[in-house]
Sequence to fold (436 residues):
Amino acid sequence: MLCSCGTEYMDIYAEVQSSDPADLINSPFGGRYCGPIPPRRRISLYRAIALSFFTNKNMTTPDVFGGRYSFINESEFEVGQPVIGSPCSYIVNISQNRTGSIISPTYPGAYPKDMSCTYQFIGKSNQRVRLEFRDFDLFFGGPHCPFDFVKVYDGLDNTSALVGTYCGQQRNLVLYSSESNLFVHFYTLQRTANTQNRGFKGIFEFSESFVKLDFISHNDGEHIRGSECDQKILSGKESSGFVYSPNYPYPFIPKVVCRYFIYGMQDAQNLERVKLEFSKFEIPKVEHKDKSESNCTDGYLKIYLKGQETTDSYDKFDHELCGTEIPPPVVSDGPRLVMVFSSGELQGGGFKAKYSFETEYKIPGTAAPDGTCSFTYRSISRKKGEFNSPRYPSNYPSETNCSYVFLATPNEQVTIVFDNFKVKADNANTTGGAYG
Fold:
């Protein structure tokens, strides 16, 4: 801490613009250090670093500090065309670089405070931009990143839709633009506390070969910003539509992973489930001599009936599909269904499936195939069981008409017993048998 370094300390100035020692007072202060832990590596923002060592001890030791220095080429930090008036903002145009590195100022040394840097990526109309952070280390001030942060926008500037705000330590952070432009803003707060985070380093690429999003935008899906081809589909109340593999109806692109998040309604009046019916399916499978090994080792479509949304739960799938046989219909266990499509080296025709959002009544019995609130109880299937109102014991939906039919065999009769009954009576037409 700054206040504990009273008798002996080292001050660091890494943002010095002038070589005159008298101008240090006008340079941003880079931190004061003492004790046994050395400061992290420093790289100058401009062309100079100044160190100021102070001691008022009567006795000194021979090994106070020591280190190494080197002069490096500044071109490593020039991501693209410099923006006039900013020490760290660049325009990256496809006409100059198709691929390259993006690196924060003074990386991997501790980055400066009170800084605002922008990186504007401009591609051609048929391209998308891929950004991969291979090292990301910013001060973590909380889940909403109120202090230092990197913001990524899906467009030409910071008026475009926000992809996300990032701080702390990020791993495997890979982002894609929806179209041909991407905008990155790196901001650090002005403060007195010492922070020694590195910043970030990554790579960028403009390409026409990334997944085209037509298979999402031309249907009812919504592309999840920042992903290559993930989408979400929200129910319009008992609505239906189609989902497709990337590039459908043409063969899918090798080596891509696309996720589908299909969400039915869930509130006080609505509860839905998702039904999925395939009409085309072609994902090449690999035959193995060991029959215990999965044939879907090249490409696959995994289905999660409980709607898993976190990466660490993706190994708990309910169905793993590949081959050319049309899969049977599947129904979610709740209001959400998730699919993960992964293509391998082999190409195939892909898939087409119809999704339907059906009202979930949570009534035991054989449901009507048309999805209405009609349930049948047959003696030949089960001799006894239970029945209940829709979603019992939770609130039942309004404007609901349900029928329950109990069918016995020719030599049987049916007995029903109500363990609970609170059906509201209309007071104007109450009869002796009504309950209210």
